[in-house]
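Researcher: I need the complex structure. Ligand is zinc ion. Inputs:
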Amino acid sequence: MGTKNRIDYYRILWLTNLYIGSLILFISCKPGAENRALVLTGQNTHDWKASSEAISVILENSGIFTVDIIESPPEGGDMSVFRPDFSGYQLVILNYDGDPWSGETNANFAEYVRSGGGVIVYHSASIAFPDWQEYNEITGLGGWGERDENSGPLCYWENGEIVMDNTPGPAGTHGEIADFLVVHREPEHPVLKGLPERWLHGNDELYGALRGPARNLTILATAYSDTAIGGTGRDEPVMFTISYGDGRIFHTTLGHPGEEGELSSLNCAGFITLFQRGAEWAATGQVSLPLNPDFPNSASTFFWEDFRPLTMDELMEKISGYKIGKSRRYLADLSNRIRKSDGTAETLLNIEKEIVKVCNSDATADCKKYLCRELSWMGSEYCIPALQQLAKDPEMAEMAGFALERLRQ
Ligand code: ZN
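Model: Output:
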């Protein structure tokens, strides 16, 4: 949702106060969402405020979650007051790496998972609590925090299968931030089914050399950690599932938030799509979310600035200012939507109507020429009057004439 809508949705209630050191932000009242999710955050070496808000918006944009955020006291604070109530939530998202919780909170969380609660372990939560055994059973794999061979084997992908490597040594490393190819290893898993099996993820940190108990763990996707930029030279797990008791856990190491709220890796349409699908699977055991034609392919990244696809109106607005030499990103987006639509006459006519609206507007000539080309193969009778009108403009005559000629064939 955009900034404008965010103001409508956010209802911030201070239940306890900063003086006590624990606060809960209720940020969603979206009607129709069936599942309740709790983002657990408050300490983290990353920008946890910006990333927690972003993942809340991502979950709400799925239409099937309402989201609350709970913040722990700051580092060094009295953690005994940090007592999240997990009851009533179908999903807990861990975005926390900091001071140990109280024994009671640890026990409550483990019981929540054991008794069937859904969990997302998100990026730096892979680093938290190296000494809490149950946490490591739940998260499956982790890094840093003085983890070593005593934490469990290294886990990576090699020759078409998962490898558990007991070589001694530390755990947790990453190379430089870069784009990298994500490869699905369980394409029939409900989280991944129907999606491209290889896609370019944008501008992220790739964790490697992770270790952990790795029990009941299924690797959904890996990415090659390139030694040229400081990586491990292995295909590292980036998304995996764990079962713990009756609980389902979806662990993604992706989504590094940069300095000062820089969130481009979270804007990746691939990250968002899989975060939403992983969330639904963890919360319910199945995935009903529809697939969106916007998705990166193996050669190009694809970002959603507001953590959701543009509406058709927004897309046409972006396209209407197009000039040759400028980015063709939005043109490619429209072409993609046409080509990957269900192809029925009704769907194509709806898109055609949007295109004709722009042809009749004061959009740039370069934009209209591009639209004439699209209409030339997907248009119907409906666009003929608009094309005839364009053909009267000397600058547009050639492209509009070309489209009319093709449509009459
Ligand atoms: Zn990071």
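Model: Summary of the prediction. Residues 1-31 have pLDDT under 50 and may be disordered.
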